[in-house]
Design brief:
alpha+beta, Fumarylacetoacetate hydrolase, domain 2, globular, binds 2-oxoadipic acid, binds magnesium ion
């Protein structure tokens, strides 16, 4: 099996916003090979001039695991083409079947090249913000196995980050609300993210070290959604509000 050709398939599906069949339907590959497909697919973006800006964690809450039927933590890579400015616009035409989910984002202040203890993590973080992630599985009907979703860079396509706040260790029970226009569509707490989003960052340092992906000063790390993700609606505003961390929003056009 040619991992590069599978990487090309997920990359082109994202580029063309055209869904494809799950890779695992016709190819048997294990989790390490799935991460290699992801790395190769992101390398194609980097070869086109995109830059790595950080990592994202996925399935760090029970709500997400239950919604998607995948019960293992996953991680993916973020590039600058995925960033949407706070208050900016997301065009539905660029996506297949996009969903939004409320998140917390960390900004890294010092290079990390190994697993960091939970108690030492604040030495490496200089900002925390509320965030929304747009996910858009390249697979038909948003259905995948653990290996499929990892190969597909964990459905990454868009990230919107709010204003950076001074890091606090006390973010383990903050209310999170996602609204479309004025209607609340998802509600949760940072508690849902492994009991404390700092634990998600800790897991990111462990997994990045395991897969030889250095985390650099200036990178951002998304901790994973606290609630199920909701399909975007044309001509609406998506708004996420996190207690103490403030608001973040974008317009769907
Ligand atoms: C995979 C991505 C999961 C999260 O925050 O849990 C994720 C998916 O749900 O398609 O980003
Ligand atoms: Mg997410």
């Amino acid at each position: 099996m040619n991992l590069e050709s599978l990487a090309q398939r997920v990359d082109e599906a994202a580029e063309n916003a055209k869904p494809i069949k799950q890779l695992s339907h016709r190819n048997a590959f294990d989790l390490d090979q799935a991460y290699e497909i992801q790395r190769l697919a992101i390398q194609r973006r980097i070869d086109r001039g995109e830059q790595l800006i950080g990592l994202k964690m996925g399935f760090t809450s029970v709500a997400k695991m239950e919604q998607m039927g995948v019960h293992d933590m996953i991680w993916g890579r973020l590039t600058d083409s995925m960033l949407i400015e706070n208050g900016g616009k997301a065009a539905l035409s660029k996506y297949i079947h996009p969903r939004a989910e409320p998140e917390i984002c960390f900004r890294i202040s010092k290079d990390i090249d190994g697993e960091i203890d939970l108690k030492d993590l604040d030495e490496y973080v200089d900002g925390i913000a509320s965030a929304v992630e747009i996910i858009d599985s390249r697979f038909e009907n948003f259905k995948f196995s653990l290996e499929d979703v990892v190969a597909d860079n964990c459905s990454s396509i868009g990230v919107v980050v709010g204003d950076w706040k001074t890091p606090s260790r006390e973010i383990s029970n903050l209310k999170m609300i996602q609204s479309f226009d004025a209607e609340i569509v998802a509600e949760g707490s940072t508690q849902a993210i492994l009991g404390d989003p700092w634990k998600s960052l800790q897991a990111a340092t462990r997994l990045a070290a395991k897969y030889n992906e250095p985390i650099k000063a200036g990178h951002i790390i998304m901790a994973g959604a606290s609630t199920a993700a909701i399909f975007l609606k044309a001509d609406s505003e998506v708004h996420v509000s996190v207690e103490k961390l403030g608001d973040v929003r974008f317009e769907v056009i």
